[in-house]
Protein backbone atom coordinates (compact mmCIF):
# COMPACT_ATOMS: atom_id res chain seq x y z
CA UNK A 1 0.00 0.00 0.00
CA UNK A 2 1.30 3.41 -0.98
CA UNK A 3 2.29 5.70 1.89
CA UNK A 4 1.35 9.36 1.94
CA UNK A 5 3.08 12.41 3.35
CA UNK A 6 2.07 15.98 2.61
CA UNK A 7 4.71 18.35 1.29
CA UNK A 8 5.47 21.76 2.88
CA UNK A 9 3.25 23.61 0.39
CA UNK A 10 0.29 21.32 1.09
CA UNK A 11 0.79 21.61 4.85
CA UNK A 12 0.96 25.41 4.60
CA UNK A 13 -2.13 25.49 2.40
CA UNK A 14 -4.08 23.41 4.90
CA UNK A 15 -2.96 25.68 7.73
CA UNK A 16 -4.17 28.75 5.82
CA UNK A 17 -7.52 27.09 5.21
CA UNK A 18 -7.93 26.21 8.88
CA UNK A 19 -7.25 29.82 9.82
CA UNK A 20 -9.56 31.12 7.10
CA UNK A 21 -12.34 28.82 8.26
CA UNK A 22 -12.04 29.97 11.85
CA UNK A 23 -11.64 33.69 11.21
CA UNK A 24 -13.72 34.37 8.07
CA UNK A 25 -16.29 31.58 7.80
CA UNK A 26 -17.16 30.70 11.39
CA UNK A 27 -18.66 34.16 12.13
CA UNK A 28 -20.97 33.72 9.12
CA UNK A 29 -21.88 30.23 10.27
CA UNK A 30 -22.75 31.48 13.74
CA UNK A 31 -25.19 33.99 12.26
CA UNK A 32 -27.01 31.25 10.36
CA UNK A 33 -30.08 29.34 11.51
CA UNK A 34 -29.37 25.68 12.39
CA UNK A 35 -31.00 23.32 9.94
CA UNK A 36 -31.39 25.96 7.22
CA UNK A 37 -29.32 26.75 4.14
CA UNK A 38 -26.90 29.57 5.00
CA UNK A 39 -26.74 31.54 1.75
CA UNK A 40 -24.31 34.22 3.01
CA UNK A 41 -21.92 31.43 4.00
CA UNK A 42 -22.28 29.83 0.56
CA UNK A 43 -21.65 33.19 -1.08
CA UNK A 44 -18.44 33.57 0.91
CA UNK A 45 -17.31 30.07 -0.11
CA UNK A 46 -17.90 31.10 -3.71
CA UNK A 47 -16.15 34.44 -3.35
CA UNK A 48 -13.09 32.75 -1.84
CA UNK A 49 -12.91 30.30 -4.74
CA UNK A 50 -13.46 27.28 -2.48
CA UNK A 51 -16.57 26.02 -4.29
CA UNK A 52 -14.65 26.14 -7.55
CA UNK A 53 -12.12 23.74 -6.01
CA UNK A 54 -14.86 21.15 -5.49
CA UNK A 55 -15.15 20.86 -9.28
CA UNK A 56 -11.49 21.20 -10.24
CA UNK A 57 -9.78 19.17 -7.50
CA UNK A 58 -8.89 15.52 -7.47
CA UNK A 59 -10.05 13.32 -4.60
CA UNK A 60 -6.95 13.97 -2.48
CA UNK A 61 -7.17 17.75 -2.81
CA UNK A 62 -10.88 17.54 -2.00
CA UNK A 63 -10.03 15.62 1.17
CA UNK A 64 -7.49 18.22 2.26
CA UNK A 65 -10.03 20.96 1.63
CA UNK A 66 -12.79 19.25 3.62
CA UNK A 67 -10.49 18.25 6.48
CA UNK A 68 -9.13 21.79 6.84
CA UNK A 69 -12.56 23.43 6.75
CA UNK A 70 -13.98 20.91 9.21
CA UNK A 71 -11.21 21.74 11.66
CA UNK A 72 -12.09 25.44 11.67
CA UNK A 73 -15.81 25.54 10.82
CA UNK A 74 -17.91 22.41 10.38
CA UNK A 75 -20.82 24.38 8.93
CA UNK A 76 -18.63 25.75 6.13
CA UNK A 77 -17.34 22.25 5.40
CA UNK A 78 -20.86 20.85 5.23
CA UNK A 79 -22.15 23.68 3.03
CA UNK A 80 -19.29 23.11 0.59
CA UNK A 81 -19.67 19.33 0.58
CA UNK A 82 -23.43 19.43 -0.02
CA UNK A 83 -22.92 21.72 -3.01
CA UNK A 84 -20.42 19.25 -4.41
CA UNK A 85 -22.59 16.21 -3.75
CA UNK A 86 -25.64 17.75 -5.40
CA UNK A 87 -23.86 19.25 -8.40
CA UNK A 88 -21.18 16.65 -9.18
CA UNK A 89 -23.64 14.44 -11.14
CA UNK A 90 -24.34 17.47 -13.35
CA UNK A 91 -20.63 17.96 -13.94
CA UNK A 92 -20.03 14.26 -14.61
CA UNK A 93 -23.16 13.29 -16.57
CA UNK A 94 -25.04 16.46 -17.46
CA UNK A 95 -25.51 17.91 -20.91
CA UNK A 96 -23.74 21.07 -21.98
CA UNK A 97 -26.98 22.99 -21.51
CA UNK A 98 -27.45 21.64 -17.97
CA UNK A 99 -23.89 22.46 -16.97
CA UNK A 100 -24.07 25.97 -18.43
CA UNK A 101 -27.42 26.65 -16.73
CA UNK A 102 -26.57 25.50 -13.20
CA UNK A 103 -22.88 25.06 -12.46
CA UNK A 104 -21.76 28.72 -12.61
CA UNK A 105 -24.29 29.56 -9.90
CA UNK A 106 -23.13 26.64 -7.76
CA UNK A 107 -19.51 27.72 -8.08
CA UNK A 108 -20.44 31.27 -7.06
CA UNK A 109 -22.50 30.10 -4.09
CA UNK A 110 -25.68 31.55 -5.58
CA UNK A 111 -27.43 28.33 -6.68
CA UNK A 112 -28.04 25.67 -4.02
CA UNK A 113 -27.70 22.04 -5.14
CA UNK A 114 -29.02 18.84 -3.56
CA UNK A 115 -28.49 15.09 -3.99
CA UNK A 116 -31.84 13.28 -3.71
CA UNK A 117 -31.22 9.54 -3.46
CA UNK A 118 -32.52 8.31 -0.08
CA UNK A 119 -36.18 7.49 0.55
CA UNK A 120 -38.26 6.64 3.62
CA UNK A 121 -37.98 2.95 2.69
CA UNK A 122 -34.65 2.96 0.85
CA UNK A 123 -31.75 4.52 2.70
CA UNK A 124 -28.83 2.12 2.95
CA UNK A 125 -30.31 -0.09 0.20
CA UNK A 126 -30.29 2.63 -2.43
CA UNK A 127 -31.00 0.22 -5.29
CA UNK A 128 -34.41 -0.47 -3.72
CA UNK A 129 -35.66 3.08 -4.24
CA UNK A 130 -39.31 3.36 -5.25
CA UNK A 131 -39.78 6.91 -6.56
CA UNK A 132 -41.68 6.16 -9.77
CA UNK A 133 -41.00 7.81 -13.11
CA UNK A 134 -44.12 7.00 -15.11
CA UNK A 135 -43.95 7.54 -18.90
CA UNK A 136 -45.81 10.65 -20.05
CA UNK A 137 -45.44 11.45 -23.73
CA UNK A 138 -41.75 11.99 -24.48
CA UNK A 139 -41.00 12.36 -20.76
CA UNK A 140 -42.06 11.09 -17.35
CA UNK A 141 -43.94 12.14 -14.21
CA UNK A 142 -42.29 11.57 -10.85
CA UNK A 143 -44.49 10.30 -8.03
CA UNK A 144 -43.35 9.37 -4.53
CA UNK A 145 -41.13 10.71 -1.77
CA UNK A 146 -37.52 11.35 -0.85
CA UNK A 147 -36.21 11.73 2.69
CA UNK A 148 -33.00 12.81 4.47
CA UNK A 149 -32.13 15.04 1.51
CA UNK A 150 -29.38 17.62 1.92
CA UNK A 151 -30.43 21.25 1.44
CA UNK A 152 -34.09 20.26 1.05
CA UNK A 153 -36.54 21.89 0.71
CA UNK A 154 -34.54 25.07 -0.03
CA UNK A 155 -32.37 23.88 -2.91
CA UNK A 156 -32.58 25.57 -6.30
CA UNK A 157 -32.21 22.21 -8.04
CA UNK A 158 -32.08 18.53 -7.14
CA UNK A 159 -30.27 15.56 -8.63
CA UNK A 160 -33.13 13.07 -8.31
CA UNK A 161 -32.89 9.31 -8.77
CA UNK A 162 -36.12 7.60 -9.87
CA UNK A 163 -37.20 4.20 -11.12
CA UNK A 164 -37.85 4.22 -14.87
CA UNK A 165 -37.96 0.42 -14.95
CA UNK A 166 -35.70 -0.53 -17.86
CA UNK A 167 -34.59 -3.51 -15.74
CA UNK A 168 -34.98 -4.71 -12.13
CA UNK A 169 -32.99 -3.25 -9.25
CA UNK A 170 -30.17 -0.83 -9.87
CA UNK A 171 -30.38 -1.17 -13.66
CA UNK A 172 -33.81 0.48 -13.83
CA UNK A 173 -32.91 3.82 -12.25
CA UNK A 174 -32.51 7.16 -14.03
CA UNK A 175 -30.99 10.39 -12.74
CA UNK A 176 -32.88 13.63 -13.38
CA UNK A 177 -32.04 17.29 -12.79
CA UNK A 178 -35.20 18.79 -11.26
CA UNK A 179 -35.43 22.54 -10.53
CA UNK A 180 -36.73 23.30 -7.06
CA UNK A 181 -39.67 25.28 -8.39
CA UNK A 182 -40.93 22.52 -10.67
CA UNK A 183 -44.72 22.02 -10.52
CA UNK A 184 -45.77 19.26 -8.10
CA UNK A 185 -42.58 19.33 -6.02
CA UNK A 186 -42.95 20.24 -2.34
CA UNK A 187 -40.94 19.57 0.80
CA UNK A 188 -40.34 20.29 4.44
CA UNK A 189 -37.32 20.70 6.70
CA UNK A 190 -36.46 18.00 9.25
CA UNK A 191 -35.28 18.85 12.75
CA UNK A 192 -32.06 16.84 13.03
CA UNK A 193 -29.53 16.19 15.81
CA UNK A 194 -26.77 17.73 13.69
CA UNK A 195 -27.43 21.33 12.61
CA UNK A 196 -27.44 20.41 8.91
CA UNK A 197 -30.07 21.51 6.36
CA UNK A 198 -31.88 18.21 5.78
CA UNK A 199 -35.43 17.73 4.56
CA UNK A 200 -37.99 15.55 2.84
CA UNK A 201 -39.48 15.95 -0.64
CA UNK A 202 -42.87 14.97 -2.06
CA UNK A 203 -43.31 14.39 -5.80
CA UNK A 204 -46.91 14.70 -7.01
CA UNK A 205 -46.68 13.95 -10.71
CA UNK A 206 -43.64 16.20 -11.20
CA UNK A 207 -43.04 16.51 -14.98
CA UNK A 208 -39.56 15.78 -16.33
CA UNK A 209 -38.46 15.47 -19.93
CA UNK A 210 -35.51 14.05 -21.87
CA UNK A 211 -33.75 17.39 -21.38
CA UNK A 212 -33.80 16.77 -17.59
CA UNK A 213 -32.05 13.38 -17.74
CA UNK A 214 -28.49 13.22 -16.39
CA UNK A 215 -26.62 10.72 -18.52
CA UNK A 216 -28.73 7.97 -20.04
CA UNK A 217 -32.08 6.48 -18.95
CA UNK A 218 -31.52 3.39 -16.82
CA UNK A 219 -27.96 4.43 -15.93
CA UNK A 220 -28.74 6.59 -12.93
CA UNK A 221 -27.37 4.20 -10.33
CA UNK A 222 -23.97 4.42 -12.02
CA UNK A 223 -24.17 8.21 -11.74
CA UNK A 224 -25.01 7.92 -8.03
CA UNK A 225 -22.22 5.45 -7.26
CA UNK A 226 -19.65 7.46 -9.19
CA UNK A 227 -20.50 10.48 -7.06
CA UNK A 228 -20.42 8.52 -3.81
CA UNK A 229 -17.09 6.83 -4.62
CA UNK A 230 -15.56 10.30 -5.05
CA UNK A 231 -17.11 11.78 -1.92
CA UNK A 232 -16.83 8.83 0.50
CA UNK A 233 -13.11 9.32 1.22
CA UNK A 234 -13.78 13.03 1.73
CA UNK A 235 -16.56 12.22 4.23
CA UNK A 236 -13.73 10.51 6.07
CA UNK A 237 -11.69 13.71 5.72
CA UNK A 238 -14.57 15.67 7.28
CA UNK A 239 -14.45 13.25 10.21
CA UNK A 240 -10.66 13.50 10.49
CA UNK A 241 -10.91 17.29 10.63
CA UNK A 242 -13.32 17.07 13.55
CA UNK A 243 -11.15 14.48 15.30
CA UNK A 244 -8.06 16.67 14.95
CA UNK A 245 -9.95 19.68 16.34
CA UNK A 246 -11.14 17.62 19.31
CA UNK A 247 -7.64 16.21 19.87
CA UNK A 248 -5.97 19.64 19.82
CA UNK A 249 -8.56 21.00 22.24
CA UNK A 250 -7.92 18.04 24.53
CA UNK A 251 -4.14 18.49 24.43
CA UNK A 252 -4.50 22.13 25.40
CA UNK A 253 -7.00 21.38 28.15
CA UNK A 254 -5.17 18.47 29.77
CA UNK A 255 -1.80 20.28 29.61
CA UNK A 256 -3.14 23.22 31.57
CA UNK A 257 -5.92 21.87 33.79
CA UNK A 258 -4.76 21.66 37.40
CA UNK A 259 -5.71 18.41 39.13
CA UNK A 260 -4.35 16.27 41.99
CA UNK A 261 -1.28 18.40 42.61
CA UNK A 262 -0.28 18.67 38.97
CA UNK A 263 -2.09 18.82 35.63
CA UNK A 264 -4.31 16.24 33.99
CA UNK A 265 -1.60 15.35 31.48
CA UNK A 266 0.56 14.04 34.36
CA UNK A 267 -1.93 11.25 35.00
CA UNK A 268 -0.97 8.12 33.11
CA UNK A 269 -4.60 7.21 32.42
CA UNK A 270 -5.14 10.58 30.76
CA UNK A 271 -1.86 10.56 28.82
CA UNK A 272 -2.48 7.06 27.50
CA UNK A 273 -5.98 7.93 26.40
CA UNK A 274 -4.71 11.00 24.53
CA UNK A 275 -2.03 8.86 22.89
CA UNK A 276 -4.71 6.44 21.72
CA UNK A 277 -6.83 9.29 20.35
CA UNK A 278 -3.84 10.68 18.43
CA UNK A 279 -2.82 7.30 17.02
CA UNK A 280 -6.30 6.46 15.79
CA UNK A 281 -6.69 9.90 14.24
CA UNK A 282 -3.43 9.62 12.34
CA UNK A 283 -4.27 6.11 11.12
CA UNK A 284 -7.65 7.31 9.84
CA UNK A 285 -6.06 10.33 8.20
CA UNK A 286 -3.55 8.22 6.28
CA UNK A 287 -6.19 5.73 5.16
CA UNK A 288 -8.32 8.60 3.85
CA UNK A 289 -5.37 9.98 1.89
CA UNK A 290 -4.58 6.51 0.51
CA UNK A 291 -8.16 6.02 -0.69
CA UNK A 292 -8.21 9.46 -2.29
CA UNK A 293 -4.88 8.78 -3.99
CA UNK A 294 -6.23 5.50 -5.35
CA UNK A 295 -9.23 7.34 -6.80
CA UNK A 296 -6.97 9.90 -8.47
CA UNK A 297 -4.84 7.11 -9.99
CA UNK A 298 -7.91 5.32 -11.32
CA UNK A 299 -7.10 2.21 -9.27
CA UNK A 300 -9.56 -0.70 -9.62
CA UNK A 301 -10.06 -1.11 -5.88
CA UNK A 302 -11.51 2.35 -5.21
CA UNK A 303 -14.88 1.10 -3.86
CA UNK A 304 -13.13 -0.99 -1.19
CA UNK A 305 -10.61 1.71 -0.27
CA UNK A 306 -13.28 4.41 -0.16
CA UNK A 307 -15.47 2.28 2.08
CA UNK A 308 -12.54 1.49 4.39
CA UNK A 309 -11.60 5.16 4.64
CA UNK A 310 -15.11 6.33 5.46
CA UNK A 311 -15.66 3.50 7.94
CA UNK A 312 -12.44 3.97 9.91
CA UNK A 313 -12.47 7.77 9.86
CA UNK A 314 -16.07 8.25 10.97
CA UNK A 315 -15.85 5.60 13.70
CA UNK A 316 -12.54 7.09 14.85
CA UNK A 317 -13.94 10.60 15.00
CA UNK A 318 -16.82 9.38 17.17
CA UNK A 319 -14.30 7.73 19.53
CA UNK A 320 -12.02 10.79 19.69
CA UNK A 321 -14.77 13.34 20.23
CA UNK A 322 -16.44 11.19 22.89
CA UNK A 323 -13.19 10.79 24.83
CA UNK A 324 -12.40 14.49 24.39
CA UNK A 325 -15.70 15.33 26.06
CA UNK A 326 -14.91 12.90 28.89
CA UNK A 327 -11.49 14.42 29.51
CA UNK A 328 -12.89 17.95 29.51
CA UNK A 329 -15.65 17.10 31.95
CA UNK A 330 -18.81 19.13 32.46
CA UNK A 331 -17.48 22.21 30.68
CA UNK A 332 -17.73 20.35 27.36
CA UNK A 333 -21.44 19.74 27.91
CA UNK A 334 -22.33 23.42 27.91
CA UNK A 335 -24.19 24.67 24.87
CA UNK A 336 -21.77 26.58 22.65
CA UNK A 337 -18.60 24.76 23.69
CA UNK A 338 -16.53 23.45 20.76
CA UNK A 339 -16.87 19.86 21.95
CA UNK A 340 -20.60 20.15 22.56
CA UNK A 341 -20.86 21.26 18.95
CA UNK A 342 -18.59 18.48 17.67
CA UNK A 343 -20.44 15.88 19.74
CA UNK A 344 -23.65 16.67 17.84
CA UNK A 345 -21.86 16.96 14.50
CA UNK A 346 -19.80 13.78 14.68
CA UNK A 347 -22.65 11.28 14.93
CA UNK A 348 -24.20 11.87 11.52
CA UNK A 349 -21.25 10.95 9.24
CA UNK A 350 -21.42 7.36 10.48
CA UNK A 351 -24.77 7.23 8.66
CA UNK A 352 -24.48 9.76 5.81
CA UNK A 353 -23.57 8.42 2.34
CA UNK A 354 -23.73 4.82 3.52
CA UNK A 355 -23.85 3.73 7.15
CA UNK A 356 -20.88 1.97 8.74
CA UNK A 357 -22.65 -1.37 8.34
CA UNK A 358 -23.01 -0.74 4.61
CA UNK A 359 -19.31 0.10 4.35
CA UNK A 360 -18.43 -3.21 6.01
CA UNK A 361 -20.66 -5.03 3.51
CA UNK A 362 -18.97 -3.27 0.59
CA UNK A 363 -15.51 -4.08 1.94
CA UNK A 364 -16.33 -7.76 2.42
CA UNK A 365 -17.92 -8.10 -1.03
CA UNK A 366 -14.93 -6.49 -2.70
CA UNK A 367 -12.49 -8.71 -0.81
CA UNK A 368 -14.31 -11.89 -1.76
CA UNK A 369 -14.68 -10.70 -5.35
CA UNK A 370 -10.89 -10.40 -5.48
CA UNK A 371 -10.53 -13.94 -4.11
CA UNK A 372 -12.95 -15.29 -6.74
CA UNK A 373 -11.03 -13.56 -9.52
CA UNK A 374 -7.69 -15.20 -8.64
Q: Averaged pLDDT, please?
A: 93
Instruction: Give the biggest beta sheet.
Output: 4 strands, mixed
Q: Beta-strand level of the residues, as a percent range?
A: 15-25%
Q: Which strands sit side by side, in order, in the main sheet?
A: 1-4-5-8
**Overall form:** globular
- Give the helix tally: 11
Total strands = 10
The protein's oligomeric status is single chain
Whole-Å distance between the termini? 19 Å
- Uncertain segments are none
Element pattern in H and E: HHHHHHEEEEEEEEHEEHHHH
Going by helix content, strand content and strand pairing, the class is alpha+beta
- What share of the residues lie within helices? 55-70%
Give the radius of gyration: 21 Å
Describe, in plain words, how this protein is organized in 3D:
- It is a single chain.
- The longest helix is centred in the middle third of the chain and has 37 residues, at 220-256.
- The protein has 374 residues and is an alpha+beta fold.
- It is globular.
- A hairpin with a 2-residue loop joins strand 9 and strand 10.
- 55% of the residues lie in helices and 15% in strands.
- The strands form three sheets. Strands 1-4-5-8 form a four-stranded mixed β-sheet. A four-stranded antiparallel β-sheet has the order 2-3-7-6, with no helix packed on it.
Compact overview of the structure:
The protein is of the alpha+beta class and 374 residues long.
Topology:
Layout: H1 8-31, H2 39-47, H3 50-56, H4 59-72, H5 74-93, H6 96-108, E1 113-116, E2 132-136, E3 139-150, E4 157-163, E5 173-179, E6 185-189, E7 198-208, E8 213-214, H7 220-256, E9 258-259, E10 262-263, H8 268-297, H9 302-328, H10 338-345, H11 356-373
Parallel strand pairs: 1-4
Antiparallel strand pairs: 2-3, 3-7, 4-5, 5-8, 6-7, 9-10
Helix pairs in contact: 1-4, 3-5, 4-5, 4-7, 4-8, 5-6, 5-7, 7-8, 7-9, 8-9, 9-10, 9-11
Amino acid sequence: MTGFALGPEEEEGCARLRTLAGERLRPLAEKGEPGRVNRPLLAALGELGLLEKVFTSGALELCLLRESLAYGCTEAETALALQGLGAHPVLAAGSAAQRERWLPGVREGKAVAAFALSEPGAGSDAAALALAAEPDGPGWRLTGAKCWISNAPEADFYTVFARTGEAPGAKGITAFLVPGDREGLTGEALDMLSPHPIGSLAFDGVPVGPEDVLGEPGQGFRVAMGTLNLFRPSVGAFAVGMARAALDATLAHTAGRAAFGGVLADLQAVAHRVAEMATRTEAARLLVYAAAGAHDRGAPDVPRRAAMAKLLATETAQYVVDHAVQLHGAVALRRGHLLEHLYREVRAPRIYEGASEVQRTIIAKELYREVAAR
